Amino acid sequence: MNRMPLRLLCRLLGVVLAFVAVPASACTVTKTREAAIGSYSQRAVQQRAVPALRTFAGLQCPPTLLVLLGTKALRGTFTSANAAGSTTAALRLVRSDGQAAVAYTASAGPDGTAPFAQGKTVDYAQNKLLDVLGLLGGDTVALPIFVTPAATSLPPVGVYKDTITLAWDWHLCSLVDAPVVGCVGELDEGIGKTVLTVTLTVTEFRATLSMTSATTWDPVHETRNPRDLPESRRAVSVAFGNPDIVPLESGTIDIVVPTPTGTILALDGDKATPGPAIRLVQGSTSSGLAASYNGPTDPSDDVEFSTSPPSVPADKRDWSYLPAGDAASEVAVTFVRVRARGAMAARSSFAARVPYRIPPPPSN
Q1: Residue 299: is its pLDDT beyond 50?
Q2: Does residue 35 share a domain with residue 58?
Q3: Domain-located, residue 362
Q4: pTM score, two decimals?
């Protein structure tokens, strides 16, 4: 028997086995996770304005095995508890009482790339997905999942949930998978499972409303550090805010300003700012709304006056009063209504600004 081929074979096997190593750090699976899309208004959900949730999907691996030109497979198989028993059912977040649902999409990449479906497997190591996700430059590669609400109607208020299971199956070989001997190089392979609970909170729209008052002028100091003296002017601002991520529907927003105790409406202005006596002031983000004011005797503009006592319910007040622009007619005004018109922009605000004066004390 010729012993040279056997010796050569042993040496070759020794070289091959030298390349077969256990990785210094291996992929790991997080068994359970919770992720919240956030709290959004009904209209924001209906208009699909809710941004996609990017969250850790449960499998992370060392980048050293992924940047080399070896064999790679990072497979995740998707299962939704709310779509159990069907491979064609739409993915849904279901309200806690089971009486309402919000559709959603899930994907391994941003903007719906590499989409998941019930029972579908996505391989994160294919189609340059890891590059698209920007995962190859860090200390670890944590695979994400993207969840995006996709409602088609106005959802009821409530907390919506789905439980997603990702069954992981990975095989990473730093060099090449060879016949008979398997992986030549550093090898990491395994299976695991992550259970991810995703929630969405749907709320009613809540506008913000606030009122401020500032003395703007007095007959002694004028606009330099003015004080509350007889005949001084005070500007009252009632601010309305839309904190939502979507604009309000086009229409009219009524801002009602009550006459402060101890003051009288001053239709000659606050003596500190030019322009109409009554006007809208836009916030840091313009509301896009407008209100016209052509003077106290114009019934066709967007400013109205009431002499109804404060005890009269708001829906019973009379708004037909037209002050003549003198002190005698101004003293009767108890409320000013400014009607702002248009579609209010998202995350914007405006204020209705109305001037008042402090009358002199009554003579004995």
Answers
A1: yes
A2: yes
A3: no
A4: 0.82
